[in-house]
Amino acid sequence: MRVFKRAADQSAAAVGEKLRRGRTDIKSAAEAIEGFKVWTANAPAVRADPELSFALCVVLPESNDSTLHVKQIDPPASGQDDEPFTIDIEEAFNANAGLEVSKFPDLGMLPHKNCAAVLAFLKDRYMHDYIYTTADPLLVAINPFKDLKNTTKEWLDQYHTAADVEKLAPHVFQVARRALERLSQFRESQTIIVSGESGAGKTEATKQIMSFFAAGSIGSDDRIQNAVMAANPVLEAFGNAKTVRNNNSSRFGRFMQFQLGEYGGIQFGSIRNFLLEKVRVTSQEQDERSYHIFYQLIKGATPAQRSNLGLLKLEDYAYLTKSGGCWDCPGVDDVASFKEVNRSFHAMGLTVEEIESIWSALSGVLLLGNVNLEARESAGEAEAAAFSAGAEATLERCCKLLCVDSRALQKELRFRVKLIGDQEIESPNRLTDALIIRDSLAKAVYEKLFDWLVCRLNSTIEPPQGFTIFMGMLDIFGFEMFEHNSLEQLLINITNEQLQRNFIKIVFARETKLYRDEGIGNVKITWTDNEGVINVLCGKTNSVLSILEDKSLAPGGTDEAIVTSMNKAMGSLDEWKPGRKNIRMCFIVCHTVADIQYNATGFIQKNKDLLKPELCALLQASPNSVMSALFAGVVVEKGKIAKGQLLASQFMRSLNSLMEIISSTGSHFIRCLKPNETKKPHDWLNGKVLAQLFSLSILEALQLRNLAYSYRRPFAEFVAQFEQLDITITKKPGDAREKSKMILARARLSQDRWTLGKTMVFLKADAVRELTQRMRAMVAAWEPLVRIVEACQRRILHYQGIHRNMKLLVRIQAQVRKAHTIMEGA
């Protein structure tokens, strides 16, 4: 289960330390002029509430090159905390002051892009319901936890028909349109990669993009498109569950391919699923549910179905009671969802017999948990597995639902067979082994049923001749950094490191293209890639996965032996550290985003979580066509496990195949953020969001984007930003490019720190800091004069007001005298 205290719950200082310092941080006190604002984590408010991460402070006099004298202003301080204090210069981050959030949809356009400034800016946009922000090549999407009415047909049509979609506000529809244009113009396959933690909105973003591609279908056969769209409720029912963080948490990854029509619509499709969290079938954490489909079936089944399947009450299934009786999900109508799944089955082209077999298999999986076993002495085994009272009758009903031989399954649960020479020796299973076999069967049947549903859908929607040019979509977890990380997190993070390698290559390519298009040559871009950590994780030899496989296959291999071998093989590498706690069982991998500690307890058991060959053969022999098809492709080999059969080996084959496909396409990235744990709108947790900015490589994207020239602006924008440096240049008429060149020449910056392209000014980070510092110094120097001018202006306006009032007073006096004379005459 992945329900642990997250890295997001830790203080900001503990998260992603190696990436924390941005490229626009303060280097000296001269860059933090008196009266300007900075962010710091070393403030009274943050010490009182570490979740704040940073507090905004104003710089006071008496600052120097090593320390700043500051006062906290946001959140407002009171009492003793309202007193000024001193911080080290390294603890300060420049703040973006006075920005109008609606006019800065791109994080790359911010004057300061350090982690504190980015965090504050995203929060400000979120509070104003701007949930989409660009961090090229990423789109940052923050879950609003409410309907903003921004995915309606009107919105969809707007992004479909816009002459230039880049002029519209950031949106998932904009990413979809951009990918669609590249697919059409360059005849090159595209992939949209949607990632984020559970509850961040990945599922919704994926569905919105699919609706964008499905829109505009004209005069074509909608059968395939309907089947593709109908698959969403089915995949959610079988692959999603309620967790403490998300009522509709996707517990699997998926890669989808679509062939789109010339005039819109989905002509063909294909879905590949991976990393299903099958342990959820047999156990759940407190206040969580198993997969939605179980609750939908039990609550929504008709009386006839209940009778035929022998359905019990929710609380009567042992597999569903592990969570403390969590039967319902807020905002979810299980009965209505059951009806929708049935409709979707028909839209997918499933037959009545296939649908009935699905319900029967699910009922059998649930009932397996009620086959109670106990320990008895037998044949010299003190803890031999035996059926409890009534368990054999339960197993009989279970086998009927699963359409397998009950006597054969009884034997597999109670006995094991060893081959000694040519002779088979039968001996009792220990109780613990029998329970593992029972639960492994339940998990395997469910996992294979999920796989079968996907394959069955693919048989209906895949193109007969295969894909040539396609639109791909990857829905995947981001990096996972929990308090306790196991094999599941390791495999997820290996996936993300592979995607990160692809991401870095794409950013390099885009930067190189920008310089080429702007006519800038001889630009050297340097950046450290993540090849080292990938080799540590999944290299062919002396890596985490290679050692895991060796120990899993070795007789008597243990989890502790895995860690010992890893420390010996990789202890001297920069990407490796021994565990902080429980050093015998833990190890640390220095990932791209942070150092993550893994606990190897249970690694071998999870890696060898394979169904006994005898059980595979039993299911393959089922007279039910669906049940026998579940394990049709499984090779049954008795004896030792062969290389390639282990979980990690199968995962890497699937991942390598997936990455080969993605690497051959143009990639687009959507990073989904979860702003809080309450699932309420406008609730924001700084520490939680900050952790995601690192784990989803959003801050790294900003750093990668600024590898050589961090500042790139059109000439007119540059002139407007730095006009106060020399108003004799900026205020006179003329070409913006020439003005830009004159400003830079007048500033006497060395030529290696700036250059002019065809449409933009390019500056290195230190040049931007120097120009900004000069601007601030000029503003500070002008401030006394400005105050005098303002005072004079106020005095002039005051005298002008008096003069106007004197004229009015004379007129009023004349009118009063006139009225008085008239009254006396009367």
Automatic annotation (TrEMBL):
InterPro entries: Kinesin_motor_dom_sf, Myosin_head_motor_dom-like, P-loop_NTPase. GO terms for molecular function: actin filament binding; ATP binding; microfilament motor activity. ATP binds at residues 196-203. Residues 102-776 form the Myosin motor domain. It comes from the Eukaryota. One of its GO terms (cellular component) is myosin complex. Keywords: Actin-binding, ATP-binding, Motor protein, Myosin, Nucleotide-binding. Residues 655-677 are annotated as: Actin-binding. One of its GO terms (biological process) is actin filament organization. Pfam families: Myosin_head (PF00063). Signal peptide: none annotated. Belongs to the TRAFAC class myosin-kinesin ATPase superfamily. Myosin family. This is Myosin E. It comes from Besnoitia besnoiti (Apicomplexan protozoan).
